[in-house]
Specification:
The structure is a single chain. With 256 residues, the protein is α+β, with helices and mostly antiparallel strands. It folds into two domains: 123 residues, Barwin-like endoglucanases (Beta Barrel); 72 residues, Sporulation related repeat (Alpha-Beta Plaits). The chain contains five helices and 15 strands.
């Protein structure tokens, strides 16, 4: 092999090596990946995401929250630079999915984010950690930010309300952060007026001969909020399969 050919070969090897290296962003080290999606999860993965971690000299302590918990602060969003890269729970970030990053909420927590500038809301699932910027409480995906009209302005004052937990969350046995699973239900509607909830409950009083509709009363911003849940699911998998049928768009799993 001539000297010139050896030089070309050496440069090619170096280029391939650096192309495969990971890149470091504000949210940690992300691997370069060709596609995005949700890989297989495990109890070990969920336990790892509940451990304390330190960013820029500050330690954060992920903790369990209750349905109905409300936070108020500033939201931001992140998009194309992170698209297709791994999130903190091992998934691949999809800027077109309705997800978000939060510093301490358990992974797969479902939250409703309301833009206080215009009143628009979106429901997202937590699958990443961040934002690590002072006074910001949640980092939305591009799709979620666009849904509430903050994709162009970058940030907005918001209210974040905990609605429930997605079907992929696992019990974290043996830790103080344990998410106790007592019963699974599926939320199919949410109403400010009791009449709307009662109509929905009556319409779906018994689904498939075994799932019964109930009304759960919560308070949001000082006013009642009536949620309609379907109960009677014997397992998380059963509730997830029911949702995947697509009969109730926007439905998600809740736990009592």
């Amino acid at each position: 092999m001539s000297f010139s050919i050896r030089k070309i070969f050496l440069f090619a090897v170096i280029a391939v090596f650096f192309a495969g290296c990971t890149r470091t962003y504000n949210y940690g080290v992300y691997e370069s990946v060709p596609t995005y999606g949700k890989p297989k999860t495990s109890k070990a993965v969920h336990r790892a995401t509940m451990k304390p971690y330190t960013i820029n000299g500050r330690t954060y302590y992920p903790t369990v929250v209750s349905v109905g918990t409300v936070y108020r602060g500033v939201a931001s969003w992140y998009g194309r630079d992170f698209h297709g890269r791994k999130t903190s729970n091992g998934e691949y970030y999809n800027m077109h999915a309705l997800t978000a990053a939060h510093k301490t909420l358990p992974m797969n927590t479902m939250v409703k984010v309301t833009n206080l500038n215009n009143g628009r809301s979106v429901v997202v699932r937590i699958n990443d950690r961040g934002p690590f910027v002072k006074n910001r409480i949640i980092d939305l995906s591009y799709a979620a930010a666009k849904r509430i009209g903050m994709d162009r302005v970058g940030t907005a004052p918001v209210i974040v309300e905990v609605l429930g937990f997605d079907s992929t969350i696992s019990r974290l046995a043996g830790t103080k952060q344990e998410v106790m699973i007592s019963e699974f239900a599926v939320q199919i509607g949410s109403f400010r007026r009791i009449q709307g909830a009662e109509i929905t409950k009556e319409r779906y009083s018994l689904v498939d001969g075994r799932y019964r509709a109930v009304i759960k009363k919560f308070y949001f911003e000082g006013a009642p909020l009536y949620r309609v849940w379907l109960k009677g699911f014997k397992s998380e998998a059963e509730a997830r399969d029911f949702i995947n049928r697509g009969e109730f768009p926007g439905a998600f799993i809740v736990r009592e």
